[in-house]
Amino acid sequence: MQRLIKNGRINGQIQDILIEDGRVTAIATNIQASTSEVFDAQGKDALPGLIDVHVHFREPGFEYKETIASGSKASAHGGFTSVIAMPNLNPVPDTADKFAAQIKRNAENSVIKTYQFAPISGGLIDDHVTNMAEIAQHHPAGFTNDGHGVQTSMTMLEAMRQAKNLDLPIVAHIEDDSLVNGGAMNAGAVADRLGLPGMESLSESTQLARDLVMVKQTGVHYHVAHISTKESVEMVRQAKREGLHVTAEVSPHHVLLDETMVEFDNPFMKMNPPLRATTDRLACIAGLMDGTIDMVATDHAPHSVEEKSGSMKTAAFGIVGIETSLALMYTHFVKSGLVNLATLLDWMAVKPAQAFNLAAGKLAVGTAADLTIVDFDEEYEIKASDFISKGTNSPFLGEKVFGQVLATFVDGQIVYSK
Ligand SMILES: NC(=O)N[C@@H](CC(=O)O)C(=O)O
Ligand SMILES: [Zn+2]
Ligand SMILES: [Zn+2]
């Protein structure tokens, strides 16, 4: 089947894109094709489909928060064509059989390319490393206990050794429970003023320090999930200098928000890791700008209205992000003049694909026709009623941004159109 996308702006030039059997077969001005499947991009940007290596789709176990269908449709609305889903599900897919069932579930229900991480240890919390070799036969994107730090060094070391053998990454939610201490936001003056229990930022960096010593010994590819502290950024910078195979992601909220913006006890400002100090936020921005941090990942974490109501003391951790990431990052980093669009696409497509070995991230002849058409000209307001996700728990509601997705294609098929 043929499809023609007319008048897309690619690297500043208006071009047509010819798609045949799901692949891009030509990019040129004024392509003539006999197909009736024509989409006119009207001069708006045609970008490679974005990639988010950190999303929570909640199925099975928590379908009231999100399903694979709703999460993947929301992703398409955000301009994403590939995501990697986290395994904090119920049941946790911590055996080869359960993992294979999850792969099948994703394939049957997702409108985009949903890849899956497998757990490091049983139930994401015990000390027994999963049967990684068996699970690996079903092609996990890597191993992670996201939602929980790996508390026992021996468990992490064993996991790293096995992951190295299987040539798969370890993705680390770094968090030492003893330094979190039941906290609801970053420990410090703001938490004190609001009377909220604090989470030490050292809970992240101390466990990262431990892990990096083991990365050096095992040689595993180690990916830092949702980096949030200045100490962590500096350690990753140093690890890269030493030639360790370390990559890192930062969320839009950790570069755009910090604890000083938490003005009242507001559950929409509660996530893990928490919004840190301004110095941490600036270090994350600097890390992104100098390549220490490789990519942006949303940590899309939908919850119900009830779970995100009341006090931060009891509300669930996490915010949605998949439908606002592109516009927020574009508005604050590209529109503001800090970086160009190509750099943003490095962070949101090229480098995620490289780090996780996905055949995606570029819009070029010969690639799968995964792309998104985006209007960066017209300002709009982020509204909960525009979300496709079941979760509306975003601290960015009411913000004015640039970067509205008009249509998204996966293997040449329309999966979202405005
Ligand atoms: N980020 C969060 O605050 N919450 C995530 C878990 C996680 O990413 O650690 C969730 O699953 O809700
Ligand atoms: Zn996490
Ligand atoms: Zn997460």
UniProtKB/TrEMBL annotation:
Binds 2 Zn(2+) ions per subunit. Zn(2+) 2 binds at residues 146, 173, 226. The active site is at residue 299. One of its GO terms (biological process) is 'de novo' UMP biosynthetic process. GO terms for cellular component: cytoplasm. Substrate binds at residues 56-58, 88, 272, 303, 317-318. Keywords: Hydrolase, Metal-binding, Pyrimidine biosynthesis, Zinc. Its cofactor is Zn(2+). Zn(2+) 1 binds at residues 54, 56, 146, 299. GO terms for molecular function: allantoinase activity; dihydroorotase activity; zinc ion binding. It catalyses: (S)-dihydroorotate + H2O = N-carbamoyl-L-aspartate + H(+). Its EC number is 3.5.2.3. Signal peptide: none annotated. Residues 45-232 form the Dihydroorotase catalytic domain. Catalyzes the reversible cyclization of carbamoyl aspartate to dihydroorotate. NCBIfam families: pyrC_multi. PANTHER family: ALLANTOINASE. Belongs to the metallo-dependent hydrolases superfamily. DHOase family. Class I DHOase subfamily. This is Dihydroorotase. It comes from Periweissella fabalis. The lineage of its organism: Bacteria, Bacillati, Bacillota, Bacilli, Lactobacillales.
